[in-house]
Amino acid sequence: MIYKDLAEIKLMVKILVKDERYPHVEGTAKFAKALAKIHNLDQTIAEFMAYAHDLFRDISYEKLFKISKVYSIEITSHDLTNPILLHGKVAAEFVKRRFKINDSDILTGIAFHTSGYKDLGIYGKVLFLADSLEETRTYPNVNKLRELAFKDIEVAYFEVLRNKIIYALSRDLLILPESVESWNNLIMKKKGGVI
Ligand SMILES: [Fe+2]
Ligand SMILES: [Fe+2]
Q1: 46 CA distance to ligand 2 middle (Å)
Q2: CA 87 to ligand 2 center in whole angstroms
Q3: Where are the domains of the chain?
Q4: What is the tens place of the pLDDT at every residue in 8-25?
Q5: DSSP string for residues in 10-37
Q6: Which fold has domain 3-189?
C-alpha cells in the first residue's frame, strides 16, 4: 500500500459518495486509523480500506448490477432482493483491479464489511468495527463497544456481530448468511453448541 493510492481513493470518495454519507466515511477512516495505531497495525492500510468500503454505496442498483456483471461477481439471491448488498463486493473488486491489491485480508474485509465473514483477517475486523463504531454512529451501547474495540479487536468483533444479529432479529431484518457463518465459526471455536 502506497501513500499515493490513499490520496487517489480519497479523491474518488469525493466524486462517488453523496455529501450526506461523507462524514460516515471520514469517521470510519478516523476510527480505523486510531484502531490500527493502538493495535500496532499499518495505519495507511486501515485508512485506505475505510475510504474504499462505501465507494459504491450511492451508485444506482442498475449500475451495481452492471458493474457486477462486468467484474464477474456472483450475484446471490440476497443480492437480487437487496442490490445494495453488492456495494462491498464491487468496491473490493474495484480496488483489486485499480490498485493491483491482492491481499485477501484487504479484499475480503472490504467485500464483507457489512456482514462480517468467517475468515476475516485483522484488517477486515478493523474495518468492520470502524464502520459500526465511528463517531457518527449512535445507538445504546456504542460507547462500550468503542472502548472494547480499543482493548481487544477479537472480542469487539464478536460483540459487534452479536449486536448486528440482535438488531436484525428485533426488527424483522435479513440476517446475512456471512454473519451467521461468522457467528457459528466463533461459537465453535469457543466450543459452544446448539440450544
Ligand atoms: Fe457499506
Ligand atoms: Fe460504511
Answers
A1: 13
A2: 10
A3: 3-189
A4: 999 999 999 999 999 999
A5: HHHHHHHS-TTTHHHHHHHHHHHHHHHH
A6: Hypothetical protein af1432 (1.10.3210)
